């Protein structure tokens, strides 16, 4: 059978398709459907299709602001029936959101019943809730019946739905919008209605207005849940380019209680955050030890105050530190990503704020122009009919005769249209010599005459018709003026905006702070307190509060400072404030930079973290000097000493900008190593001590300042086999402190520094201690006073904390006394001095400490902690901070 012989209803043969092209086309169709018909708002009314259909369906049901509410189930059903056939699971949540005060800056729907809560509870079922249009939603729909917008067939072409609402209310900026489409998203923050109206008025008055002038009246978003907007730079960037980031914080206040404790009260929460996940996060942060010092978190919210979250603090805790930690680690501070993306002529476009204003004004110009044309048409049609009725009243006898003599309405219509009309008749009826009339009645006029009631023949009704005709002519003239001058239309828009502001605007809820937040100031989150920093021989480092260790009498057995790995032992220990800079000097003569709070917090018995994970040290490179620094002062230097007795002085400011990979601290001869570093000022004396018990003291001015790569000069002349083990700095010749010398077998002695006379640099020095078989060789030295406490550690991981005052001063050339009792095979490895604050005095007494920069530090004023920070399980607080790479971080100049 040929093709021509196939029956007309025979199925066509399948046609081959290119699968790649078919997938491309299908995906693009799907993507455009999501973008245009689901996810993105129209720039003119700020609504997505689902929102617009709900509002139109409620208007169809007569649920205006002045009416009673109706069941949401009925609204959802009407919306689904007429416009949105995608099921109630997509319609009801959208309806409920438009009635939630914490999501909408101005509600579009007035709800009655349970529409959810800011606590995170969902709305009740739609069969229980009721709703109607809010007053501002009515402003959105006003004039929709005046041919102000285009309509399109609904999904089954039984009804017509508007493509956009007239939008007298600037909804897109006031209520904002959010949505995720295919390959793009929108996130427009809500604003204050009064400020938006002022910005639109300013734009109408001056279309060339600059962004700064717009921000004078529209300074920032205004979120329905309030909060504090941190800084204006992110807002300005978003308004300028259409994309930006706004940092939003919960509004807080600190309240002092009668028992001396403090509590932090949050009176709002960031936009689009509910309380239930917030409380879970806060509890997690406290229980995991990320935030310490919090004793309880209470929700004191009620009907009068929807949000009142109270964070109760432990005694003596600094509320400002806890507050900053809450902002950093919890959702109480959030970043709102601004993406000003909306549909413009059916296409997604990212818009700056001025473009939003322009497009809304253009939309309103078009709406008013179309409304005026519609009203003009109606006015002209009505004037034409009234004109015919007035003519009929003056030809009433003729009209009655024609109608009575006609066989049917059609004949009567034709005969009426053939009556000759004189313009003078209309002029006399209106008492208007300028009135004009056609020479005969039109079909429309004839039909109106045939439908006219007998009561219109009275004189009173005739006067009413004349007045109506004159009013219609006035309206027609006004409409023609509006259509003939765009400035008149702009004036109407201006008046509408000012009226909206007076009727619906309310005070701003979100405060604006001048504090700019980009990368958060990490130091504001860290409590300033002393930390014991320990470094093992194999390069494991940690920090912990000094009060972890209790004071013991001289000669005790001590407690375990760390569970070191096999073959490892504690080699360095010192005390520094958490905010101090740490300059790490290696035996290879390089220096690295970190802050104390970047070191891992660990328990007393833990081994710590490998230092190679914090610093970019080379294989085999060891840390031999760690100097805490608060400020890089120009009047200070670093004095460095090598194992072979070479010393070098370099200005402290030369180390203020080290790289992540480290920088050269000094040049070293082959086989030599850097073993000690200390800060010095003019007038200081330097004391070097050797392994064989020798010591030399000289003025720091004997060493001239050199650049970082220099090798230095001779500091002490060593005997064969001897080497330098340590260096201290004395405050001039009259320094009343003592030199504490500790030997490897646990013995040591304390000698006044005044017994070490000043010599020339490079000499052999004086005898410091006898290195007998009992004492062993010298391990470490420290500068101490009677009030000091020291920690002595051993290669076996044993530590003892003892008071220096328990060891009386003795002469230089002596063997000393036992400082720590050692197990067989154990040996002393290091010595560290504790600060005065940890001596257990009256916590209410202001102590004067020496800070890392050598200046007096008043403890209470600086807010230093008085005790350990222990979580509920008794484990020391874990360090919550990530390591700052030295390439990115910059120390304070």
**Unreliable parts:** 836-893
Helix fraction? 25-40%
- Rounded to the nearest angstrom, the radius of gyration is 44 Å
Output mean pLDDT. Answer: 83
Number of domains: 4
How far apart the termini lie comes to: 96 Å
Helix count, per DSSP? 19
Strand content: 15-25%
Task: Please specify the SSE layout and strand pairing.
Layout: H1 19-39, H2 49-60, E1 70-71, H3 72-82, H4 88-97, E2 109-112, E3 130-133, H5 135-141, E4 151-153, E5 160-162, H6 171-175, E6 177-180, E7 185-188, H7 193-205, H8 211-217, E8 228-230, H9 233-241, E9 243-249, E10 252-256, E11 262-266, H10 275-287, E12 294-299, E13 309-313, H11 319-329, E14 333-339, E15 341-344, E16 347-350, H12 353-394, H13 396-405, H14 409-417, H15 423-430, H16 443-450, H17 459-484, H18 486-504, E17 511-513, E18 530-536, E19 540-544, E20 559-560, E21 570-577, E22 581-586, E23 590-595, E24 609-610, E25 623-629, E26 637-642, E27 646-651, E28 663-664, E29 674-680, E30 685-690, E31 694-699, E32 713-714, E33 724-730, E34 738-743, E35 747-752, E36 766-767, E37 778-784, E38 789-794, E39 798-803, E40 817-818, E41 828-834, E42 848-850, E43 856-858, H19 859-862
Parallel strand pairs: 8-17
Antiparallel strand pairs: 1-3, 2-3, 4-5, 6-7, 8-9, 9-14, 10-11, 11-13, 12-13, 15-16, 18-19, 18-21, 19-24, 20-39, 22-23, 22-25, 23-28, 26-27, 26-29, 27-32, 30-31, 30-33, 31-36, 34-35, 34-37, 35-40, 38-39, 38-41, 42-43
Helix pairs in contact: 2-3, 3-4, 7-12, 7-18, 12-16, 12-17, 12-18, 13-14, 14-16, 17-18
Domain Topo IIA-type catalytic: 40-525
Subcellular location: Cytoplasm
EC number: 5.6.2.2
């Amino acid at each position: 059978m040929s093709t021509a012989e196939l029956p007309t209803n025979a199925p066509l043969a399948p046609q081959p398709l290119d699968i790649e092209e078919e997938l491309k086309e299908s995906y693009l169709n799907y993507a455009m459907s999501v973008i245009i018909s689901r996810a993105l708002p129209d720039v003119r009314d700020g609504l997505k299709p689902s929102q617009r259909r709900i509002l139109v369906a409620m208007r169809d049901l007569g649920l205006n602001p002045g009416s009673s509410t109706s069941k949401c189930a009925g609204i959802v059903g009407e919306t689904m029936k007429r416009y949105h056939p995608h099921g109630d699971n997509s319609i009801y949540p959208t309806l409920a959101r438009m009635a939630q005060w914490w999501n909408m800056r101005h509600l579009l729907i007035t709800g009655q019943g349970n529409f959810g809560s800011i606590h995170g509870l969902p709305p009740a079922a739609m069969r229980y809730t009721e709703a109607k249009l809010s007053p501002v939603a009515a402003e959105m729909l006003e004039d929709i019946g005046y041919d102000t917008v285009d309509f399109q067939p609904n999904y089954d072409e039984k009804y017509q739905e508007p493509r956009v609402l007239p939008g007298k209310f600037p909804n897109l900026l006031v209520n904002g919008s959010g949505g995720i489409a295919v390959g793009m998203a929108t996130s427009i923050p809500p604003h204050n209605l009064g400020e938006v109206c002022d910005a639109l008025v300013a734009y109408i008055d001056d279309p060339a207005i600059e962004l700064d002038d717009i921000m004078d009246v529209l300074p920032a978003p205004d979120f329905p849940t309030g909060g504090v907007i941190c800084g204006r730079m992110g807002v300005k960037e978003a308004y300028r380019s259409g994309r930006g980031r706004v940092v939003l914080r919960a509004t807080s206040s600190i309240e002092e209680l009668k028992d001396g404790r403090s509590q932090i009260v949050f009176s709002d929460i960031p936009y689009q955050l509910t309380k239930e996940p917030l409380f879970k996060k806060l509890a997690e942060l406290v229980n995991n030890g990320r935030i310490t010092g919090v004793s309880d978190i209470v929700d004191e919210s009620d009907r009068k105050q929807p949000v009142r979250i109270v964070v109760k603090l432990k005694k003596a805790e600094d509320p400002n530190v806890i507050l900053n930690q809450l902002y950093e680690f919890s959702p109480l501070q959030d970043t709102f990503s601004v993406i000003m993306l909306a549909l413009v002529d059916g296409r997604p476009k990212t818009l700056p704020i001025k473009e939003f204003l322009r497009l809304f004004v253009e939309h309103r110009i078009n709406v008013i122009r179309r409304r005026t044309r519609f009203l003009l048409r109606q006015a002209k049609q009505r004037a034409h009919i009234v004109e015919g009725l007035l003519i009929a009243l003056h030809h009433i006898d003729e009209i009655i005769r024609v109608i009575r003599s006609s066989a049917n309405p059609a004949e009567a219509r034709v005969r009426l249209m053939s009556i000759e009309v004189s313009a003078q008749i209309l002029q006399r009826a209106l008492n208007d010599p300028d009135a004009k009339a056609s020479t005969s009645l039109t079909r429309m006029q004839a039909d109106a005459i045939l439908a006219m009631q007998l009561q219109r023949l009275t004189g009173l009704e005739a006067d009413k018709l004349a007045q109506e005709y004159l009013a219609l002519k006035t309206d027609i003239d006004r409409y023609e003026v509006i259509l003939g001058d765009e400035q008149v239309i702009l004036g109407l828009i201006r008046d509408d905006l000012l009226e909206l502001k007076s009727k619906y605007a309310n005070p701003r809820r979100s405060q604006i702070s001048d504090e700019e937040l980009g990368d958060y100031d990490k130091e504001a989150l860290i409590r300033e307190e002393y930390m014991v920093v320990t470094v093992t021989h194999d390069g494991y480092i940690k920090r912990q509060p000094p009060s972890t260790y209790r004071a013991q009498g001289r000669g005790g057995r001590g407690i375990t400072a760390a569970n070191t790995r096999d073959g490892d032992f504690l080699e360095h220990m010192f005390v520094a404030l958490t905010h101090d800079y740490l300059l790490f000097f290696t035996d290879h003569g390089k220096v690295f930079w970190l802050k104390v709070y970047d070191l891992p917090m660990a328990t007393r018995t833990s081994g710590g973290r490998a230092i190679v994970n914090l610093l970019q040290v080379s294989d085999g490179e060891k840390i031999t000097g760690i100097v805490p620094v608060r400020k890089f002062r120009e009047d200070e230097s670093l004095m460095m000493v090598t194992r072979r007795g070479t010393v070098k002085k370099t200005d402290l400011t030369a180390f203020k900008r080290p790289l992540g990979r480290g920088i050269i601290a000094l040049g070293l001869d082959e086989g030599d190593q850097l073993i000690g570093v200390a800060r010095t000022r003019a007038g200081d004396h330097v004391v070097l001590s050797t392994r064989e018990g020798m010591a030399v003291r000289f003025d720091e001015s004997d060493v001239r300042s050199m650049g970082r790569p220099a090798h230095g000069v001779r500091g002490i002349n060593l005997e064969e086999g001897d080497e330098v083990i340590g260096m201290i700095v004395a405050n001039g010749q009259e320094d009343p402190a003592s030199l504490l010398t500790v030997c490897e077998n646990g013995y040591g002695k304390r000698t006044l520094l005044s017994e070490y006379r000043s010599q020339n640099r490079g000499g052999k020095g004086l005898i410091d201690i006898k290195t007998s078989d009992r004492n062993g060789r010298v391990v470490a030295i420290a500068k101490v006073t009677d009030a000091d406490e020291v920690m002595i550690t051993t290669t076996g991981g044993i530590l003892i904390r003892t008071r220096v005052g328990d060891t009386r001063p003795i002469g230089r050339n002596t063997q000393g006394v036992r400082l720590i009792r050692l197990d067989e095979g154990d040996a002393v490895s290091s010595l560290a001095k504790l600060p005065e604050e940890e001596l257990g005095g009256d916590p209410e007494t202001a102590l004067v400490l020496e800070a890392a920069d050598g200046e007096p530090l008043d403890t209470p004023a600086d807010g230093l902690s008085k005790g350990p920070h222990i979580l509920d399980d008794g484990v020391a607080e874990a360090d919550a901070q990530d390591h700052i790479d030295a390439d990115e971080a910059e120390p304070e100049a």
